[in-house]
Design brief:
The protein is of the alpha+beta class. The chain contains 17 helices and ten strands. Strands 1, 2, 3, 4, 5, 6, 7, 8, 9 and 10 form a ten-stranded mixed sheet that branches. α8 (about 140-150) packs parallel to α10 (about 180-200), α9 packs antiparallel against α10 and α11 runs antiparallel to α13. The radius of gyration is 26 Å and the shape is elongated.
């Protein structure tokens, strides 16, 4: 998430000061809205636009400050302009600190100072500043910043969950102040997503996160300028096994991010894993025909009247009645979540299987599993039109069974024990503009 400051409101209506305010707003427009009107331009062009706008703002501010060295509003504006750098600016910190000392009720200066301390990594000071901003007048910007910060704070599991709950409340307040502001919807989506991965038992948070991200995307400014919106929605899509949607989101994030490498690497990793699963499923793990026939026959002889096969399933959730009988042919897990397997049934039909919320190395190759209430997913990802690698040029199509609750899995007549479960956790990274 990227804390963003916006236009300061409430300054004296002096012509020079008004020009300075507008010039500083132009710096933030270049930072936060550049691609809204400059689609197709490079990150280098955006950086140049920010630098140019900042230089113009400082040229207007310097003579005004020379004549009004103790004017809190002018000092704030200069600090705010310098605060648009990617890294922490000591000069911005000093100016913003001076502004709030001269005028403690200047809520937007408190907010900008909180953002500055955040870039420095001083979360305690940042929190104190955002509290100061809210004390002197609620704004959607300060509400969003505090919402974001609360999710970064360390503490006991109970304290962290309480912080995320409060984070969601603040995000909802920010949305309520301006229903058309996509950034507020984005912040609220992140709060819902964090709560879902923290609690895991309330899928409503997952649905609300997706709804909020879609509202954020409807805002042209947010959709065109915030790579984290697309990155986080892609995280949600990956969890839902909507791989085509996830890849599209990661591609958009890479296009907008000043450091696109991680998103591009994730695209490669996702495509590589999908190709790997599809290849093993299509090739039936390259088992010798005689060996495979013997294993299929063994599955057939062990079927009960309540066992079903892959072809009996419908897409999506399936009834609790009946269990899917499969044998694990390969472990294709490439990261902690989810665990991924290739399985086959008594008809020698093959598919992938993804298991969430389970400790590693519980399920082994050769295990015979009965899965209650399986969810069937059809994975379809097309090749890229201008692919520059074998991974990107290959389309993948396969079916996969998803298991969210490992206790729906029975092995050797016993459901997997509760002490083998593990929560899927979301890693949250704080970014500063």
């Amino acid at each position: 998430e990227k804390p963003k400051a916006d236009s300061f409101v409430g300054m004296a209506e002096d012509g020079g000061v008004m020009a300075a305010r507008q010039a500083v707003d132009a710096v933030y427009d270049a930072r936060d809205r550049f691609f809204t009107t400059q689609d197709g331009q490079s990150m280098g062009a955006r950086a140049a636009a920010i630098d140019d706008a900042r230089k113009k703002a400082l040229e207007i501010l310097e003579p005004l400050l020379a004549a009004n060295a103790q004017n809190a509003e002018l000092i704030f504006l200069k600090g705010k302009a310098l605060n648009t750098s990617e890294e922490h600016s000591l000069e911005a910190e000093e100016l913003l600190s001076k502004a709030v000392k001269l005028k403690p009720t200047l809520s937007d200066a408190w907010d900008a100072l909180g953002e500055c301390f955040w870039k420095k990594g001083d979360l305690a000071a940042s929190q104190s500043c955002f509290e100061g901003a809210l004390k002197h007048g609620s704004s959607k910007h300060s509400l969003r910043h505090m919402s974001m910060l609360l999710r970064q704070l360390r503490g006991t599991p109970a304290e962290q969950e309480a912080n995320i709950e409060q984070s969601l409340k603040l995000a909802k307040q920010a949305v309520g102040m301006d229903l058309n502001d996509g950034h507020s919807w984005y912040i609220m989506g992140n709060a819902h997503l964090s709560l879902f991965f923290r609690q895991m038992h309330d899928a409503e948070h997952l649905r609300q996160a997706l709804k909020a991200f879609k509202r954020a995307e409807a805002d042209a400014n947010e959709n065109s300028n915030n790579p984290d919106l697309h990155q986080n929605k892609a995280t949600l899509s990956l969890y839902q096994e909507d791989y085509a949607g996830a890849l599209a989101g990661l591609a958009k994030a890479a296009q907008l991010d000043s450091t696109p490498g991680p998103a591009l690497e994730q695209i490669q990793a996702v495509r590589r894993q999908l190709v790997r699963i599809a290849t093993v499923v299509d090739n039936k793990a390259k088992f010798k025909a005689k060996r495979l026939a013997a294993m299929v026959e063994a599955l057939q002889s062990s079927r009960t009247t309540t066992d079903v096969c892959i072809r009996d399933l419908k897409l999506g959730a399936n009834p609790v009645e009946g269990t899917l009988l499969v044998k694990v042919a390969a472990n294709l897990t490439s990261q902690p979540v989810p665990q991924v397997f290739a399985v086959f049934d008594a008809n020698n039909d093959w598919c992938g299987a993804t298991v969430y919320n389970l400790q590693p190395d519980v399920i082994s190759i050769g295990d015979v599993l009965r899965i209650a209430a399986p969810q069937l997913v059809q994975v379809d990802v097309e090749a890229e039109a201008a692919a520059d690698s074998a991974v990107h040029s290959q389309a993948v199509h396969f079916r996969s069974v998803r298991v969210d609750n490992p206790q729906h899995i029975t092995r050797k007549g016993q459901p997997l024990a509760a002490d083998l479960l593990a929560k899927t956790l979301l890693g949250v990274t704080a970014k500063s503009s």
